[in-house]
Amino acid sequence: MSYQYPIDETWTKEEIIDVVNFFSLIEKAYEKTISRSDLIAMYRNFKEIVPSKSEEKKLFSEFEQTSGYSSYHVVKKARESNENKIKM
């Protein structure tokens, strides 16, 4: 991993940890298999920190530009899937 996660300096330490954990799970969806329920729970935590859709899109875009991983597509697949595991 030679990139940084997008974070906001105004977030608390706990919020930064939650956002980093969310993006880490996105990585794992591409590299391994993840639990659909874990991703949905982490996304809910992420949305409590970043309730704005425009801010979410900005962070997702920044992450995709640096990592090559699409958070949007992982979340979309988790929402539409009935499977317990997600793999991109």
What does this structure look like?
The protein is mainly α and 88 residues long. It has helices spanning 13-31, 36-49, 53-67, 71-80; strands spanning 34-35, 85-86. It has a single domain (13-86), classed as Annexin V, domain 1, CATH 1.10.220.80. It is built from four helices and two strands; from the N terminus they run αβαααβ. Helix 1 (13-31) runs antiparallel to helix 2. It has a two-stranded antiparallel sheet. Pfam families: UPF0223. InterPro entries: BH2638-like_sf, UPF0223. This is UPF0223 protein CIL05_08290.
Question: What is the structure about, briefly put?
Answer:
InterPro entries: BH2638-like_sf, UPF0223. This is UPF0223 protein CIL05_08290. With 88 residues, the protein is mainly alpha-helical.
Low-confidence stretches: none
Going across the biggest sheet, name each strand in turn. 1-2
Mean pLDDT: 93
Instruction: Indicate the CATH class.
Output: Mainly Alpha
Give me the secondary-structure category: mainly alpha
| Distance between the first and last residues' Cα | 18 Å
Beta-strand portion reads: under 5%
Shape call? globular
Helical percentage:
55-70%
Biggest sheet features: 2 strands, antiparallel
CATH architecture: Orthogonal Bundle
Domain unit count: 1
Name the CATH homologous superfamily: BH2638-like
Cα-atom radius of gyration: 12 Å
Would you give the CATH topology?
A: Annexin V, domain 1
Series of H and E elements: HEHHHE
Total helical elements? 4
Number of strands: 2
Family: Belongs to the UPF0223 family.
Organism: Virgibacillus profundi
InterPro entries: BH2638-like_sf, UPF0223
Protein name: UPF0223 protein CIL05_08290
